[in-house]
Amino acid sequence: MSPAEINGTGVRLRAYRPDDAEAVAAGYDDPLSHRFLPPLPSPFTLAHAERFLSEGVGAIFADGGAAYAIADPDTDDLLGGIGFDKVVPSRGQAEIGYWVGPWARGRGVATAAVRALSGHALDAGLHRLELLTHWDNPASMRVALAAGFRREGVRREALPNRDGGRDDLVVFVRIAGDPDEPAPRPLPDLPAGELTDGVVTLRPLGPDDFDFLFALHNLPEVWQTSVPAVPPGADDVRRRCTRAAAHWLEGTRADLVITEAATGTPAGDIGLFYQEPATGQGMIGYSMLPAFRGRGFATRAAQLLSLWAFAETDIARLIAGTLPTNVGSQRVLEKAGFHREAYLRSRLPGPDGTRQDDVQFVLLAEDLLAEGPRLDG
Fold first, then answer.
1. Quick one: average pLDDT of 139-167?
2. Per the database record, which ranges form the N-acetyltransferase domain (predicted)?
3. Which of 57, 114, 168, 208 places its Cα 20 to 30 Å from the Cα of 329?
4. Which residues pair with 324 in a beta bridge?
């Protein structure tokens, strides 16, 4: 592929020039670049940038790849860089990568550039493009999805990190013939980023929620009713927090924190697990800190999440389960509109190798609309 210009929506991909060196150095020396591009020298200096422009770009093209500057189509100012490498000619496959300077983020630059280069490369003979991201880089995952890439899987320990370990990478793929329209998302974003009824607010779980979630899920009454029924370690909880956004974008689960609307204080958590997309069935589960139990928060959270699921997704049926002895949780579900449907003997693994029965409740969209909230009981 020659370094001819490629025009995109609001961006122009052009050849790098020597006078791009200062902007390249500033972009590659940015903290996000250091985090997600560990092969880069740290610090990344002007000398590194000049060497990349004089030697690195040509080497990429010599190996069958491509490297372009992302430029503003009106001012020609450098906004970032994009290219592909790791070309496997026998498979018609390559790996696309990009960076955007902090001065140009939040404007759709990366999505426009990835869409433009992907379309050009696939039209020019490549059949498969891979875009790899870290688990804790949801911004890059959003770019991939918006540019028509679809999540394919995870490459375990695919990339050495700066600490001497190795990181897993999430794989997104676009193949020739795929539309450049955004990939479908089974679980869309929340309107305005949260759900609230004025008493409780649900917001997405994130990395900053580690301390709260660790304390909540190490309560004996919480972990003993979880699957698996063991207290989670710090690494498990940290992964749950840092990967929550990725799972939401994947469409498999939506993890949220239940907060007191007036103060923003975390009170519990609630999750929607899209366990059977083929049948339109999802499942919810929740936990509350002791100080917030008995105040109707869990019922309000279940109703908010159920309303959103029925209105904004293809879920037609929600289930939830409780232990037979957990009368309080059963009451929460009944007040939220769920109906007891089944008693499943020895369904769940319990503590110390035991098995536990599960009382299953179900909610349909028509049930919720017909009966309305039942928060007074």
1. 96
2. 11-176, 200-366
3. 208
4. none
Residue at 124: amino acid letter: A
| Cα torsion 305, 308, 309, 310: sign | positive
State whether residue 37 is helix, strand or coil. Answer: coil
Model pLDDT for residues 233-270, shown as the tens digit of each residue: 999 999 999 999 999 999 999 999 999 999 999 999 99
Q: Confidence class of residue 306 from pLDDT cuts 50, 70 and 90?
A: very high
User: Hey, what domains does the chain have and what are their CATH numbers?
Assistant: 6-175 (3.40.630.30), 191-371 (3.40.630.30)
Return the closest-CA partner of residue 222 out of 301, 293, 305.
293
130 SS3 class: strand
pLDDT at 227 over 90: no
* Residue 187 identity (one-letter amino acid): L
- Supply the pLDDT for residue 368: 76
Three-state secondary-structure class, residue 218: coil
Pairing assessment for the beta strands 93-100 and 128-133 based on DSSP bridges:
parallel
pLDDT at 170 over 80: yes
213, 243 in Cβ contact below 8 A? no
Q: What is the pLDDT of residue 377?
A: 40
Residues near 288 by Cβ (< 8 Å), separated by ≥ 6? Answer: 258, 267, 268, 297, 298
Beta partners for residue 113, in sequence order: none
